[in-house]
Amino acid sequence: MNNGEWLDSYLSFLGVERNLSSATIRSYQEDLRHLVFWLDDQKIFVGDLNVEGLDLFLNQVAAKLEYSPTSVARHFSSLRGFLKYLLQEKVILFSTESMLATPRLGKYLPACLTREEVESVFASIRETSKVPLRDTALLELLYSAGLRISEALQLRLGHIDFDNDWLTPIGKGNKQRLVPLGKMAKENLLAWIREGRPLTEPKVDCLILNAQGKAMSRMGAWKIVQQHTAHLTKHVTPHTFRHSFATHCLEAGMDLRVLQELLGHANVTTTQIYTHVDSEFIREEHRQFHPRESKK
To answer: Closest Cα to residue 122, out of 219, 217, 224, 197?
Structure first.
């Protein structure tokens, strides 16, 4: 059987042998179909998947799908069950113990930009963008406000309170939250709304529009990010700016509970993932500036 057929066989096993609900099975299917697509694209039979391949897949899916580390952990749990089933069916003919170890979540965190790198992205927009006001407004939402790309693209004019300097994006679970609007971000959003956005002859009331005055697609936003981060050596996605926002806030001493509210995390344990990067930052600062560490 091919990769897709083995997935179908596993899903049937979950329903018949494990008696799982249809909702749970759909959840497994959603996670595992990304693996099957990836394997088919790489021309790898699932029975030949090894530790290196699994690690590569998890890194790529975390970046492409903008998964949080906790989502990667859930994804991995689905993979673990599938691999055990394949071992049981003798599709995998070697020990999978090393492949089934719980991953270190920090390993799959998206790249974090330095403050200088973030400023270089804004500089690239000013110097090379065909629509600098819009592209700057988009980056302000991603980095200055820490929005998810889906939240930024769905943000409407009515979600911005310029009088009181608040954004009210709608996040996961259709939940609305308050996010402060900083001075520079406010100036750049107003510049786009007053000077650039009307030129598109808007067809919708979304803040970020494409050249036709319609809501910008995720692919359109990705292209903007790729264009203005091409000079960096890191793999950057729209989610990288949200991740950088969280990391820089923690580095500056923001309370974790406050950051949780700003990011719209339902559980603080999700936000705590970012303390991993904060501790790495502290370690690097120590190595660089402590007199006994910085000696040549």
So the answer is: 224
Mean pLDDT of 230-256: 87
Domain boundaries, the chain: 3-102, 115-287
* 3-102 against 115-287: fold identical: no
H or E segment and range at residue 86: helix 69-88
Catalytic residue (choose from 75, 134, 197, 242): 242
pLDDT in tens, 82-106: 888 998 898 887 666 666 665 555 5
Are 246 and 146 in contact, with CB atoms under 8 Å apart?
Answer: yes
Residue 239 among the catalytic residues:
yes
Q: Which of 148, 159, 197, 243 is catalytic?
A: 148
Catalytic residue among 28, 108, 143, 274: 274
Q: What architecture is domain 3-102?
A: Orthogonal Bundle (1.10)
- What pTM value is reported for the model? 0.63
Q: Which CATH class is domain 115-287?
A: mainly alpha
